């Protein structure tokens, strides 16, 4: 029931904010639009907690207003929402599939998002290159968020890390902040059902730019995947303990 209520509210609010942000995108500059997007993300995080019982815990220090690349695990539709709610004015790399949603293409263009071709290959590399060049001219410090796997993954699994994070780090001369999460255990991928619990977003120590692509990506993948597995195990252990307590209370009530 809670998932049903949340999804109705979430998609209704998303539709309203799509219109609001499309209007805000008409205002010169990025301030009003980004304020609208952050407001939407913070409201969604509030709904997650109030309606679904999903508490978001941040570990480490979110790199607000810093010239870094955020390379994060991606296992939930809510990942980007939570990241923007916690990190403020974030630029981001996203697939061109986002353009299929009404008004979204216009909003993405106005907020400066780097939209890459989902098919990969030369087309994706070219769109990433163009986005990097545009980011270099922004001036004010602003983190760039990228999901190195390029796709949503199920909890407990991972995909080969693509070279986008490495390219951004080298061409923008920025350190990369690896981010692990277990949000997928509360909000699995794009699924309807939601589960209560504590979703952790953990910001790890930055990795400096490196000329060795393979070594850099291997280390990034190791850092993010290893810590994500640890967070998933922590979540599972907490829920097993909670279920054990609930079962004990139920048996005690049944015998009284």
What is this entry, summarized?
The chain is 50% helix and 13% strand. The chain has 256 residues and is an alpha/beta fold. Helix 2 packs across helix 3 (79-87).
Describe the structure.
- With 256 residues, this protein is an alpha/beta fold.
- It has one domain: Glycerol-3-phosphate (1)-acyltransferase (3-Layer(aba) Sandwich), CATH 3.40.1130.10.
- It is built from 7 helices and 7 strands, in the order ααββαβαβαβαββα.
- It has a 7-stranded mixed sheet, with helices on both faces.
- Helix 4 (104-110) links the parallel strand 3 and strand 4.
- The radius of gyration is 19 Å and the shape is globular.
- Residues 244-255 have low confidence and may be disordered.
Largest sheet: 7 strands, mixed
CATH domain fold name: Glycerol-3-phosphate (1)-acyltransferase
The helical percent reads: 40-55%
Shape: globular
Residue runs with pLDDT of under 50 for 5 or more positions = 244-255
CATH superfamily: Glycerol-3-phosphate (1)-acyltransferase
Structural key phrases:
Glycerol-3-phosphate (1)-acyltransferase, 256 residues, alpha/beta, 7 strands
Task: Describe the protein's topology.
Layout: H1 2-24, H2 31-52, E1 54-59, E2 69-72, H3 79-87, E3 91-95, H4 104-110, E4 114-116, H5 121-136, E5 144-146, H6 164-172, E6 176-181, E7 197-203, H7 213-255
Parallel strand pairs: 1-7, 2-5, 2-6, 3-4, 3-5
Antiparallel strand pairs: 6-7
Helix pairs in contact: 1-2, 2-3, 5-6
